[in-house]
Amino acid sequence: MHDMSDPMTNALAVAFSSLLLAAVCVSSGGCIAHPEISGKAVVTRDGEELVIDTGGNGTRLVDASGEVAGGCIVPNQGKLGVAVQKEGAAFSFFDMMDESDSPYASVTIDGERYQGACEIIVEDLQGDPYEADVSAGPCDLVRLFDGATVRLETAVFHVSDCSGAD
């Protein structure tokens, strides 16, 4: 895992990289050609189960005309990020970034952001670094300003045609 000696600095770095992935990769599509993303994430908050799903119980691909947007990026060989957004839902945003020194996941629920270190498993498919099955959970995610927690029970996504960058 990563150094937690300065939690605020670490939390801000994680939040910044999450926002950067979301802003660049989900909203503008600038770093993504035409990725294919399907899957779902399940979070519990105070006993309530919340789901963000690309459709068809995680089997439908996100597309530009759908109600669920998504993006993925492979910043370097062996690292992968996935983001999914559903406007108007209580659980409206999910992202995870597999980085060897600080893998993490974050969610936005009712406009509040929760994040935390989370083991992420990436299984490259057919030797293509831009296609993978990606999963995470269970792990706890924390809201920075007051320490409230939610639990990422599971996140399972299939991604392909993710862009790569050096």
From TrEMBL:
<protein>
    <recommendedName>
        <fullName>Secreted protein</fullName>
    </recommendedName>
</protein>
<feature type="signal peptide">
    <location>
        <begin position="1"/>
        <end position="22"/>
    </location>
</feature>
<keyword id="KW-0732">Signal</keyword>
